[in-house]
Amino acid sequence: MSGTDRTNAGGNGFPVDELRALFPALRKANGFVFLENAGGSQVPQSVVDAVANHLIDNNVQRMAKYEHSQGVDRNLEAARESVALLVNAYRPEEISFGLNATSFIRLVSLGIAKLLAERNEIIITDMDHDANIATWMALEADGAKIVWWKMREDGTLHTADLEPLLNERTRLVAVTVTAHSIGTIVDVKTVGRLAHAAGAEVFLDSVHFGPHGLIDVQAWDCDYLVCSGYKNFSPHMGFLWGRYDALVKLPTFKEDFIPDVPPYKIEVGTFTYENVAGMNAAVHYLEDIGRRFLAGSGHSRREALAAAMAAIRDYELVLSREMIRVLKRHGAEIYGISDEAKLAGRVPTICFNISGVTPQHIAAEMGKARIGVRDGHMFAPRLMKRLGLSMESGALRVSLVHYNKVEEIARFDTVLGDIIAAAKGSPKLARSA
């Protein structure tokens, strides 16, 4: 195998070039480098086809007695089964589809507000997306007491710090599986064990972990989990998984004609059926990756998904390692895990700053060079404050997924070096105090 082949395969046989060929946006990009996948991943052709086919064949309302409507019902149930396999649900009815993860966080929080009673403490963190913070803080008006589980200086949430916060008044622990900003993975399995031992429930935001690893609600022993399609190689939509008995008990708004059982009590109103069809296709895309790494036949869909996410994790460690090395060579201040020996504790989503150059200038110059990155507060005001960063300036973020290549990191390296060199002679580009 040539050196180029080893680079393309990430050193572990990962077929990155073959997979990139399945993404029309990457084929059409003409050299554009997508390093802002935390803001939305691209989709394979199979997902585009699924959305288009739904709009052509089944663009009607569900639950009627003619063929087009029955096609909607079949598509939704197929997607529900696929997503149930993706997260390892106990039963497909635990999956509800809707607009986005934020709306589902709000839906669950409004239901829990009615169940607080003496168990009124909700534990949240200062590392999460604000959607999984402000939504729960809003329940203070309903008598909730907010308890903070704080990130340590190493950029991680330690479960040893969670344990003393739990007591007989804890109603819920709300935490991300992976920080959308600094890429830290949380030990949610231990969170589930500790919270349930205290009689509390667990709400997980898995939006950012979804494209990077295997979701397993049974192993994690959580009670609720939200995810979004747009980071998972799918259109813009969201889904909620909830433990069936928890969803049955959860108060929700619904019209009188809707059955008071999940998923119907959750899926009130019409949602984007075509995007759900796309999510179904995205799950099948991941399965197809997994089957490349499984010997023989007869493997289950869940086994294929597990193989896919294991291969993606291995390959993304290559990407994380190379990007961290590049940023260190340029003197970047990296927020979160940067020790090469500990990279298994993060995904290739990296926040950083370069001394003397504003994030906004670097992001704009990267854009001119046809490299997409994000600058700013990352929708995490509490985290920005914790890191000593202003909301106005914030930080830079690069976020890679399995269709990115080491060669793209090399191009980023060159452009970043040029930007820094040019900025040295331009005092006006220096960071404001």
Query: With helices defined by DSSP (H or I, 4 residues minimum), what is the helix count?
Result: 16
Tell me what portion of residues adopts beta-strand conformation: 5-15%
What is the H/E string?
Answer: HHHEHHEHEHEHEHEHEEHHHEEHEEHEH
Number of strands: 13
Give Rg in angstroms: 22 Å
Low-confidence stretches: 1-10, 429-433
Q: What is the averaged pLDDT score?
A: 94
Main sheet: strand order? 2-8-7-6-5-3-4
Largest sheet: 7 strands, mixed
Terminal residue distance: 51 Å
Task: Write up what this structure looks like.
This protein has 16 helices and 13 strands. It is of the alpha/beta class. The strands form three sheets. It has a seven-stranded mixed β-sheet with strand order 2-8-7-6-5-3-4, with helices on both faces. β5, α9 and β6 form a beta-alpha-beta unit. Residues 1-10 and 429-433 have low confidence and may be disordered.
